[in-house]
Amino acid sequence: MILYVVTETEAKYRASTDCARIKHTLEAQARDLCLILHFSQLSRKRIAELQPWAICHSGGATPHAEYNVLTHRGYRWVTRTCNIPQIGFCGGHQIIAAHYGAELGDMHRLRPDEPDLNPEYLPGLYKEWGVFPIEVVRPDPIFKGLPKTLLMQERHRHEVKTLPAQFHLLASTPNCKIQAYVHRKKPLYGVQFHPESVPATYPHGPALLRNFFAIARAHQQAGQ
Fold this sequence. Notes:
Elements: E1 2-6, H1 10-15, H2 19-30, E2 34-38, H3 44-50, E3 54-57, H4 73-80, E4 86-89, H5 91-99, E5 104-106, E6 128-136, E7 149-156, E8 158-160, E9 167-173, E10 176-183, E11 188-191, H6 204-222
Parallel strand pairs: 1-2, 1-3, 3-4, 4-11
Antiparallel strand pairs: 5-8, 6-7, 6-9, 9-10, 10-11
Helix pairs in contact: 2-6
């Protein structure tokens, strides 16, 4: 079994219509059952009970300062201490980095020559919104079989500003340097983009997910 951890507020978690679709996507690529949990339901005891072999962390639109996603003790234990392979998507990528001390912030305010790709969401801020080319800057098994330039779905205006020393930078775009990272000593990944919800006409997202789950399976088997 794998876990899909929703990092939004509890109200948005309960109202979400996307979780079932993402669950099916993850199950198809992992070839295993996926259990959806809210981050507040996580603890050392629950992980021991469930024994997942991989954990995926969702994105989210609510500013992190408005709820306790960065300070919840059980959730911080999962990202900082638990040795199960994990990957954070968009907001999940930011939260994992913040748990290790990273600075988060908006990319930048729109310059006069820049269009607002989603003017209904925080107008005036630069956003990567849509399918963008992302450059791989460091080889890693998560990119096995993929080209150096990935095409991935982006939906964000916030980013990881500083990469903690525990991580390697894996991929970048011109306006968002930290597009992907991996922990130096364990299979803990973050990606600013959305491989779990990329349009079907762009195959790089599902391929990256399959690579992550292959890494997680190998880690599980090595521990047995």
